[in-house]
Automatic annotation (TrEMBL):
One of its GO terms (cellular component) is cytoplasm. One of its GO terms (biological process) is arginyl-tRNA aminoacylation. This is Arginine--tRNA ligase. It comes from the Archaea. Keywords: Aminoacyl-tRNA synthetase, ATP-binding, Cytoplasm, Ligase, Nucleotide-binding, Protein biosynthesis. One of its GO terms (molecular function) is arginine-tRNA ligase activity. It catalyses: tRNA(Arg) + L-arginine + ATP = L-arginyl-tRNA(Arg) + AMP + diphosphate. Its main location: cytoplasm. The lineage of its organism: Archaea, Methanobacteriati, Methanobacteriota, Stenosarchaea group, Methanomicrobia. The gene is argS. Residues 7-86 form the Arginyl tRNA synthetase N-terminal domain. The keyword Aminoacyl-tRNA synthetase applies. It comes from Methanolobus profundi.
């Protein structure tokens, strides 16, 4: 709704400027503490108009003409700024549109196809805490972009032929595979054992190198051993992702770009640029004119390709199938992702937009799958859900066990997702599960509880015969400050989605959701709802509660978090 209000503000200012003989592409619109939106266009045009910015702002406001039914209310100048308030139509129309559009409210204003890759952890063990920020940021971005109206395909790029996979396939030939364990955990067991042997007997590294050469040359038996190892790990990884409410549409394997000839083709395309040179038998790319002192290796001295080479072929393939490409990568990929973009640019291919995130850790410290020093995402989720169950048991001891488990799962997963995504991707963070689960802090449980509270209010009112969900209401009766504040906060949902979709920073929707829950609780705290004496006011306030329920559910869904009806 805010986007429509902003569009009308832009149009009103453009018309006013045209009537004065001025023109600009930028109205200088920005948030303001003193209005719903402010414009500093008078600053921008002062030189062109040869006028004092304050006087020009007054002339612009005097020239504004609002059509009937406009969402714009009061307009005034504060020095050179033009402050614009939303009018009553904006408030009333927001309530009506939420009740009409329900789960569709706040989206569908963009178009185009996006391929978004996230997680893509090596299939040599389970996901650990260090991986899940990638998964949660990536999945939340997918949900934001879909809400905005894009067609989004989510991909997990499977490394099925690198050194780590060669070690796993070798390990499976040496050790028994524990079928009683979750497959990705059992893979980690043999991988850790194999690395211990390689550390003790370095000469055995030659066996790993041989396997890598065989798989790239197309040796069927070696390929089969790699595929079996990867399949076991990916099966377990998928289970963990689904538990976190994360899913992928496809799992392209890097080996497919070797077998299709795409890797060989892209190497030739890069050679044709004249950028390649020999470095002790290896083929490297000179990207110094792009600001990279370090060359990019695209072929080893033994003729085998690298992960980077296959990644280039993968991105060339993706670029032919979508309007935008987005990769979610850890901070350790800053250099290589920059080189990848530069190389694609040099051969005239579509470049991905890169979302770089800093790492999440636990207070216990750093993790390494190779050394066997990690806390798996499964272990963390188990611990979180057990703690959430204990909290639900304490608060709702009278409820059946199935209810407690369902709520504990929603609250636990919600706590993990929210606490990780609430921090801007470029900032590192330590995940503290006890704080994340604290119902008194304004995290996921606080937002979920606000939704459950709205559901409970409506259920109680309906049972008492005080609310008819299908009844007509009059939004103009909602005039209290906390009512209007809540409505305006809900109206901003589409603008928040728009900002997140453009900036690719999902923490903005997390902050908004918390503020929305707070606005709802402030409204309910200060304004009588079910106990309101006048029937028409009670009906309108209950409709407002229903609006809050709808938008809270939409926000939680965009965050990939469950919206419980009772807690």
């Amino acid at each position: 709704m805010f986007l429509e209000f902003k569009r009308q503000v832009t149009e009103a200012l453009e018309n006013a400027l045209a009537s004065l003989g001025y023109e600009t592409d930028d109205m200088g619109l920005e948030p303001s503490q003193h209005a719903d939106i402010a414009s500093k266009v008078a600053f921008r045009l002062a030189a062109q108009a040869k006028s004092n910015p304050k006087e020009l702002a007054e002339k612009i406001v005097a020239a504004i003409e609002l059509p009937e039914g406009s969402l714009i209310g009061n307009i005034k100048t504060v020095g050179p700024y033009i402050n614009i308030e939303a009018g009553r139509n904006y408030v009333d129309d927001t309530v009506n549109r939420i009740l009409e559009e329900k789960e569709a409210f706040g989206g569908n204003f963009c178009e185009g196809k996006i391929l978004l890759e996230h997680t893509s952890a090596n299939p040599n063990g389970p996901l650990h805490v260090g991986h899940i920020r990638n998964s949660i940021i990536g999945d939340t971005l997918v949900r934001i972009l879909k809400k905005a109206g894009y067609e989004v395909e989510t991909q997990y790029y499977v490394n099925d032929m690198g050194r780590q996979i060669a070690i796993v396939s070798w390990a499976l030939s040496l050790f028994d595979f524990d079928t009683s364990r979750k497959p990705d955990h059992a893979i980690a067991d043999v991988y850790i054992k194999a690395n211990a042997i390689l550390n003790e007997e370095p000469e055995k590294v030659a066996e790993i190198d041989k396997r890598m050469q065989l798989v790239e040359s197309g040796d069927e038996e070696t390929i089969k051993s790699f595929d079996e190892a990867v399949s076991l790990a990916v099966t377990g990884i998928k289970q963990t992702l689904l538990r976190m409410n994360v899913s992928h549409d496809s799992f392209p394997h890097e080996s497919s770009y070797i077998r299709s000839g795409a890797v060989s083709r892209i190497v030739e395309e890069i050679k044709a640029t004249g950028r390649t040179e020999d470095d002790n038998g290896a083929l490297v790319v000179d990207l110094s004119d792009y600001g990279f002192e370090k060359t990019l290796v695209i072929q080893r001295s033994d003729g085998t390709s690298l992960y980077t080479t296959r990644d280039l072929a993968y991105h060339e393939w993706k670029g032919e199938r979508a309007d935008r490409l987005i990769d979610v990568l850890g901070a350790d990929h800053k250099l290589i992702s920059g080189q990848l973009k530069a190389t694609l640019n040099a051969i005239g291919k579509k470049e991905p937009e890169i979302v770089i995130f800093e790492f999440v850790s636990l207070p216990e410290g750093s993790m390494s799958t190779r050394r066997g020093k990690f806390i798996s995402a499964d272990d963390l989720l188990e611990q979180i859900e057990e703690s959430a169950y204990a909290e639900v048991q304490k608060r709702r001891p009278e409820m059946e066990d199935e209810f407690k488990k369902d709520v504990a799962s929603m609250v636990g997963i919600g706590a993990v997702r929210y606490d990780i995504v609430k921090v801007s991707p470029e900032k590192s963070t330590v995940f503290n599960w006890e704080e994340a689960l604290d119902f008194e802090k304004q995290g996921a449980p606080f937002i979920q509880y606000s939704h459950a509270r709205a559901c409970n209010i409506l259920k109680k009112a309906e049972e008492e015969g005080k609310w008819d969900p299908a009844g007509k209401i009059d939004p103009s009766l909602l005039t209290e400050d906390t009512e209007v504040d809540l409505i305006k906060k809900m109206a901003a949902f589409d603008s928040i989605i728009d900002i997140c979709a453009r900036d690719l920073k999902p923490h903005t929707i997390a902050i908004y959701s918390r503020e929305l829950a707070d606005a709802f609780n402030q409204f309910y705290r200060f304004v009588p709802v079910v106990s309101a004496e006048e029937d028409d006011i009670r009906a309108s306030r209950l409709a407002l509660v229903n609006c809050a329920r709808i938008v809270l559910a939409n926000a939680l869904d965009t965050l990939g978090i469950g919206a419980p009806e009772s807690m």
